[in-house]
Write a structure and sequence with these properties.
This protein has 347 residues and is an alpha/beta fold. It is 27% helix and 23% strand. It contains ten helices and twelve strands. It has a seven-stranded parallel beta sheet with strand order 3-2-4-1-5-6-7, with helices on both faces. Strand 9 and strand 10 form a beta hairpin. Helix 9 packs antiparallel against helix 10. The radius of gyration is 20 Å and the shape is globular.
């Protein structure tokens, strides 16, 4: 096969757990303006959940073949086994995409993924058009990421229940340090003073002038995201990382993920109440799932990060689709699974 004269641009969408990456990707697909897009989506663990919010979603011009899930581990750790072959498969299609969106898991480091674009198998065929970091505005406003390393170290030392170094702060910083554009998402949930404070805190980490754009529900003009032409794979030296040039000296052993069944026959309010109780279990970081509601043809989505819970109907159930609800739970290693299960069953 003759290599194309122009490289296919790829946009990497990174961001912490629950920041709104999938919502942004859906928005871009829904507003592609005739441009043929494809998506590579990676969720933590082997649960393959976020792809179900994209595949077969009824977006005009987007088919199930245009959404590829990489569920076999963190995308930044499995570039050889999963990412590169999946990218090649998209590029080798008879009608290849004009632009590829890559949604990483919340725990992925973007720099090792960018480095993969220099692999001989793909470097002449693709380029990183830009790295977009989606930031959960309310979470940062609530101080979930400490800017003072000394204060953070003192807090960890005072908490005898912590038996390991928590990498969340470093993962968050690596994501924004690699970005060409930062979206301060859920800005409608933070007042003006809070937004200004969060933007100032983020700017303190940045080595160069990176634009921070306030968004709500991932709604942003696609032209602001697509077509940056940053050629990030050739600009790695300007993007510092906590994890060295190799970028592979990290692991995710501090986290567990599990998929649990959601009970059927509950109202949206009762189901959300149970998920809210589950979110209070020790060590739980994020919950995201879907369920069938009696008398409703639409699938109910429930999700939560910290104390913030939400639910909405996202799409009709497929004619042959099993209406078995399930909930993905991500937490610190050893989180209280029994408490989560008890909350969901109403015990």
């Amino acid at each position: 096969m003759t290599a194309p004269l122009e490289k296919t641009p790829c946009t990497i969408v990174t961001g912490f757990l629950g920041a709104g990456k999938t919502t942004l990707v859906r928005h871009l697909l829904e507003n592609a303006g005739g441009r043929k897009l494809a998506v590579l989506v990676n969720e933590f663990g082997d649960l393959g959940f976020d792809g179900s919010f994209l595949a077969g979603c009824g977006i005009e011009g987007c088919t199930e073949d245009d959404v590829v899930e990489l569920p076999n581990g963190c995308i930044c750790c499995t570039v050889a086994d999963d990412f590169v072959p999946a990218l090649e498969k998209l590029l080798d299609r008879p009608n290849p995409p004009r632009h590829i969106l890559i949604e990483t898991s919340g725990l992925a480091l973007p720099k090792p993924l960018v480095q993969a674009f220099n692999w001989p198998a793909i470097r002449s065929r693709v380029t990183v058009d830009g790295v977009i970091a989606v930031v959960d505005g309310p979470a940062v406003a609530e101080g979930q990421f400490a800017d003072d390393p000394a204060a953070l170290a003192a807090q960890k030392a005072a908490d005898t229940s912590v038996e390991h170094d928590n990498p969340l702060e470093e993962v968050f910083e690596d994501q924004i340090l690699c970005a060409d554009l930062i979206l301060l998402n859920k800005s409608d949930l933070v007042d003006a003073a809070g937004r200004a404070r969060v933007k100032a805190e983020i700017a303190e980490h940045l080595p160069k002038a990176i634009k921070i754009v306030e968004t709500a529900h991932g709604r942003v003009e696609p032209a602001l995201i697509l077509g940056l032409a940053a050629a990030v794979e050739s600009d790695l030296a300007a993007r510092p990382s906590h994890h060295g040039e190799g970028g592979h000296d990290h692991d995710h052993d501090d986290f567990d993920s599990v998929a649990l069944p959601l009970p059927a026959g509950l109202s949206p309010e009762e189901l959300s109440a149970r998920v809210a109780r589950a979110a209070e279990a020790e060590g739980v970081l994020r919950l995201k799932g879907f369920a069938a509601v009696p008398g409703k043809p639409m699938r109910l989505v429930v999700q939560g990060v910290g104390r913030r819970l939400s639910h909405h109907f996202d799409r009709p159930w497929g004619a042959d689709e099993a209406r078995d609800g399930r909930l993905t739970v991500i937490g610190l290693k050893g989180f209280d699974l029994k408490a989560v299960e008890a909350a969901l069953t109403g015990a």
